[in-house]
Amino acid sequence: MPRSPNSPRPKAGSVTLATVAQRAGVSPQTVSNALNSPELLRPETLERVRRTIDELGYRPHRAAQTLRTRSSKLIGYGIRPTAPGTSAPVMDRFLHALSQTADEAGYRILLFASPPGSAGLDGYEELLDLHSVDGFVLSGTERGDQRQAWLEKRGVPFVGFGRMWSGRQIGDWVDVDGASGTDAAVEHLVALGHRRIAFLGWPRGSGVGDDRAMGWQRAMQRHGLPVRGKRAQSIDDIASAQAAVGPLLDAGVTAVIAASDMLALGCYHALRERRAVPGKDVAVVGFDDSPTAALLSPGLSTVAQPLEAVGRECVRLLLARMSELGAPPERVLLEPSLVVRNSTSASDD
Amino acid sequence: MPRSPNSPRPKAGSVTLATVAQRAGVSPQTVSNALNSPELLRPETLERVRRTIDELGYRPHRAAQTLRTRSSKLIGYGIRPTAPGTSAPVMDRFLHALSQTADEAGYRILLFASPPGSAGLDGYEELLDLHSVDGFVLSGTERGDQRQAWLEKRGVPFVGFGRMWSGRQIGDWVDVDGASGTDAAVEHLVALGHRRIAFLGWPRGSGVGDDRAMGWQRAMQRHGLPVRGKRAQSIDDIASAQAAVGPLLDAGVTAVIAASDMLALGCYHALRERRAVPGKDVAVVGFDDSPTAALLSPGLSTVAQPLEAVGRECVRLLLARMSELGAPPERVLLEPSLVVRNSTSASDD
Asked: CATH code at B44?
């Protein structure tokens, strides 16, 4: 029994397949056919149902579409806890960009709490199993990461924020070119007149840390500047960094590039311990542009990761992969940018 | 045609209703009945199907269950961008706790990018419409927030991280008792011998800021200490805070409690401008325990919000609300904790 065409339009969200059927004067099965098997309907019936769907703003229920199309329009993302007291970049920004870009493409991000290491694979399995996610975004990729191989074997689309640091490259990824960031830091310091530029890194063996060290080394060598005896290493902790950088300062380096803002803060402490002023006596550059960098005194020059762009690129690559699982892998290396603050002023200041 | 009981167990994730039917030697409809209308089956058939389901580790597909039970096991959360250069607490920690507690209860967090203000209501409508989320967690509640009334009107379960700051209280919420935090800061400073304790707040009218000011005021009055002329206000910006707190320092206050770590940093700058040392000449207390607080020199004493507990409580209240929509509202006010660092040492130090 069709309602009059002038009856009020139901509130969005309350329109069901039954509402459409009633308004169009057909059975619910006919509406279902119009959506899924239009060839079964007479053209005039199909036309009437489609017009009613448009009029009412009916959107087929996602769960029903999932069963029909085998696409849930969901992207899984395993969230890891932020260690307290770190100076790491805030992943909020990455997650917001990821969520926004996915939204624009009609997808949603489904979160799950993911422990590091292979214990986390259960969470991935469960999301596939229970929610039929269409793919995954991985972050915090590390040496020996098993997630990429696990997902590849199952034919599940995924994209990594972070390249593979060991073994062969698997799948698509988006990463930030850390070496390019420390290279740019050397260029900046050389332009300011510095020659004795040290690098304070993490212990060798971390993919991210070795990459950042490599950018410093290649830029120094390009300028014919010595790297021997100009390198120290420390875990990502202020007191440890403060102790590690001491001998370099005592040997008279005029600038220190650190692999993280946390290590750079250790330099600040080591300089103050020696009654020296960061940015005046010795230039300091950090890495990450953590919220702390802008708030220090003097403000810390640091290499910023384009987290919003990483989030957008992750979604772009994942959508491409979902539409063609067999396409050749795509890898995107984004340029970081040097944020110059008062910790790097001219050495003859 | 049932397979032999010794045929290998299919990989988890690949078990479908059809697999179960084949293995049990029944039709898919019979398996469906075993799950949804067991009374239709003969006891021995039901027993056989159930045993096969257990053996194969079959988990009915979430989308199918959504259609059947009208529960998607999804909780919507609108993520907002973090303003760059803020010293706000890192919402990563809240989101991780939310996600983990939800996981444990069999629910998942579905993210969407949410602009502030009522423009964001579209996102809520879409999640209800397309994904049938079972409820929402709201954060960043503000004066004139329309989301609570909008969701209440539609009978959608929700819980707010943050109370209502204007009008009547609507629905369940979890919040942190900001007044209790600044009250504890006064107690700490009084115990150290301070009497002239100032408050540097945000401009009046923000719910969160006025609450933090109130805790300082009530504790000062309890100790018979003067509040007149001891209060300044600034927007959440270092330079502005530095200018605003100047007159209080010049009038000889011995301690400043700030409504945020950012305002506390403004105090550090104002003190250094006067050749005074935070924690030695004037004690400073911040609010939020942002990552920066621990990294400053001297370390900033500050009031920490129990973000993990907030996340867990949000899920607990929401699950209770989903199981009984008509139950009386539940509101949880959690105690923050004072983290003492070197910015508050004894005034006769």
From this structure: 1.10.260.40
CA distance B337 to B185: 9
Q: Other C-beta atoms within 10 Å of A93: how many?
A: 19
Number of Cβ within a 10 Å radius of residue A54: 9
CB pairs under 8 A between A and B: 158
The two three-digit tokens of residue A337, written as one number: 């940018």
The two three-digit tokens of residue A246, written as one number = 């001491």
Query: Is B11 inside a domain boundary?
Result: no
Residues B103 and B137 in one domain: yes
**In chain B, which ranges are E strands?**
74-79, 108-113, 135-138, 158-161, 172-176, 197-201, 231-233, 255-258, 283-287, 301-304, 331-334, 337-339
CA-based angle B76:B123:A318, to the nearest 5? 75
Count of domains observed in chain B: 3
Please spell the DSSP secondary structure of A23-43, one letter per residue.
Answer: HHTS-HHHHHHHHH-GGGS-H
Using DSSP's 3-state secondary structure scheme, residue B245 falls into helix
Residues A192 and A311 in one domain: no
The pairing of strands B197-201 and B231-233 is parallel
- What is the phi-psi region of residue B134: left when phi exceeds 0, alpha when psi lies from -120 to 50, beta otherwise? alpha
Report CB contact under 8 Å: B63, A66: yes
Q: Range of A34's domain?
A: 17-60
Residues B92 and B164 in one domain: yes
Give the span between the Cα atoms of A240 and A232, in whole angstroms. 11
Q: Which residue has the tokens 């459409």?
A: A20
* Structure-token pair, residue B181: 């935090």
Phi/psi at A84 (nearest 5 deg)? Answer: -65, 150
Does A115 fall in a domain?
yes
Q: Does the beta-carbon distance from A99 to B113 stay under 8 Å?
A: yes
pTM for this structure?
0.77
Query: Cβ contact (<8 Å) for A64 and B62?
Result: no
- Quick check: is B241 in a domain? yes
Q: For residue A228, what is the DSSP state?
A: T
For A174, the enclosing helix (H) or strand (E) is: strand A172-176
Within-domain flag for B6: no
Residue with tokens 């924020």: A161
How many secondary structure helices (H) and strands (E) does chain B include? 13, 12
Residue B190 sits in the same domain as residue B270: yes
Residuewise pLDDT in 10s, chain A (349 residues): 333 434 444 444 467 778 888 899 998 778 877 776 677 788 888 889 888 888 887 766 666 666 666 678 899 998 877 665 566 677 788 898 999 999 989 899 999 888 765 567 888 888 888 888 999 999 888 778 889 999 998 899 999 999 988 788 899 999 999 999 999 999 999 999 999 999 999 999 888 999 999 999 999 999 999 999 999 999 998 999 999 999 999 999 999 999 999 999 999 999 999 999 999 999 999 999 988 898 888 999 999 999 999 999 999 999 999 988 888 999 999 999 999 999 997 444 3
Query: Residues of B with CB below 8 A from A125's CB?
Result: 12-13
B82/A103 touch (CB, cutoff 8 Å), yes or no: no
Do B298 and B197 lie in one domain? The reply is yes
Measured CA to CA, the distance from residue B279 to residue B272 in angstroms comes to: 12
| Chain B residues inside the 8 Å CB shell of A108 | 110-112, 127, 131
Contacts of B113 in chain A (CB under 8 A): 96, 99-100, 103
Is A320 in a helix, a strand, or coil? helix
Q: Which helix (H) or strand (E) is B17 found in, with range?
A: helix B17-24
CA B281 remoteness from chain centre: 36
Q: What is the CATH number of the domain that holds B147?
A: 3.40.50.2300
